[in-house]
Structure formats: C-alpha cells, structure tokens
C-alpha cells in the first residue's frame, strides 16, 4: 500500500507538471480528488490494515493530500495571474484615442421659449393649462364676443372640422372655458378670482411665408377678480417683457382692437438690441420699438357671455405668439426654420437656458 502512495505521488508529480491552463488544472484536480480517486480508494482500504499500519499509511496519505492541495493552489494562482496579465495586455486603453460625442437631445427652441414664459407666469401665480386643440365654435368664437356672422371672424381664417367644430384659432378658447366654469361654480354675489395661462398650438388658414405659418404656438393669459385694473395689466406686461428680454426694456402701449378686450392695446418694447442709439437697427426697423403682443381688459360683453357679472368682476387678458418671441430672442428671420427639423439649425440652441 505504501508503494501505491508513492506511485500516486509520482503520477501526480508528472501530471501536475503538464498543467498549462485552468481547464487542465480542473481535470487533474478531479482525477486526484474525486470520489473515485486512487487516494480515496487507498483511504477506504485502511480499515483492512492493522492499527499500526493504518496510522502510518493514513499519515502518509494525508501528507500526500496536503501536498497535492498546496501544489494545485499554487498552480491556480499562477494561472489566474497569467490570465489576468494576458487580458490586461489585450484590453490596453489608448488614452490618445479621440473621444466620441454623446448624441444628447435638447428641447426645440420654441419649447425653450414656451417653457420660459410658463415659468414666468407660474411664478406670478398663474395656473398653466394646455387645453384642447379641437374646439367648438361656441368656445372659440361665440363666447369671446365673435357671434356667427361677426365681421371680425374674417380676421381669422379658420379650419372647420364641421359646422360646429374648429381647430382652435387662438389659445383664448381656454379663457372662455375657464370663465364659464368659474361662473358655474361660484355663488350669487361672489366675485371669483382666477389667473390662467393657456399655452399650445393654434391653427389658421394662412399661406405659409417667412413670417406666417398655418400652425403656430401661442400663450394666452387672463386674470379676473374684483379689482383687476389696467394698472395690473401694465405691471404684468412689463414683468413679462423684462424677464423675457432684459431689465432695461420699456413697454409702450398703442390703442388697438380685439373683440374680446375693451380697451385693447398693442404692446411694443423698446429695442433691446440697439437701445435706439444711432436711430435704431434692423430688428426694430430703425424705429427703436418692436411690436410684441396684444392685450387689454376683458370686454364686459365677454364676462356676460360666460355668465359673470361685468359690474363686479373685471379682468385683464393678453396673447403672445411664441414664434415671434423666439425669432426676436434668437435673431431668426424666417419662421419656417422652426419647422424644418434641420439639425444644424436646432443644435445652435443646445446650450440656451442651461
Ligand atoms: Zn433696434
């Protein structure tokens, strides 16, 4: 039996020297340590021996087992090390290799302006709504003092879906909806207070050219309450224009006409580009002023049409074209640039507002 242990030791010595890979190592380990390994067979036969022999052979068998374990562990460490080194050599990082830009998305310039305006009004306490793009004739026209056959409807060529449904021509449709809603839900003699900004797409049957598009974006806001005055309107307009352009801009109001406001004004801002030095620039067309939006006090007739009492409830209203603001802010002179999805154009706004 002692011979068998020596034979086994020799066989192990020989086979372990042949190990070149971790797979070889596993094969050798299974051969010498598996259930049916020669060493196990020897250990099983120990019980047939005398106690003295059993102790001696047992000791030798254990020594061999410890030796084999040690050799294999050492070998495994060497092989792991070698494998790791080979991997590192293969995966060598070339720090001089040029980097790749990540294709990061960015908001469209119109959405950037839209979000900026929403933020300003949210901070002023307005409720921000989007509303519906398909609207009834009633809320798009009739409740805003534009009855059937009213000549002012000619100002807005409309996409009719049927005789009573239109693609909304302005975001003001939500003014009618909110006024009606607040009137329906207030008690007698109660004067409601509410400030809402409606933002989204509007549609007109315009021929597309450098400054017109059949679809564009608008924000339309109003505030109602017991003591809303023209002074409040001026303050709201001034706050908006200074936040949108810069703190130095002044506003100028010119009388105008809109069916849903009375009085109505056209709002100009002093030119933020040339500040009217040297008699103006391209943007203000040498006038020093830029036309920017329309506004006014909510027409008494509109209050009545929506169920509110115009004697107690007054309100201010305004409408802003997002494309016009974006064109001015970014110095874009063709409205179509916003709709052509030209990446070279859109990527110029990558860092705006960051
Ligand atoms: Zn100018």
UniProtKB/TrEMBL annotation:
It is an enzyme of class 6 (ligase). One of its GO terms (molecular function) is ATP binding. Its main location: cytoplasm. Binds 2 magnesium ions per tetramer. It holds the Pfam family tRNA-synt_2d. Its EC number is 6.1.1.20. Keywords: Aminoacyl-tRNA synthetase, ATP-binding, Cytoplasm, Ligase, Magnesium, Metal-binding, Nucleotide-binding, Protein biosynthesis. It is found in: Cytoplasm. Its cofactor is Mg(2+). Tetramer of two alpha and two beta subunits. This is Phenylalanine--tRNA ligase alpha subunit. It comes from Entomoplasma freundtii.
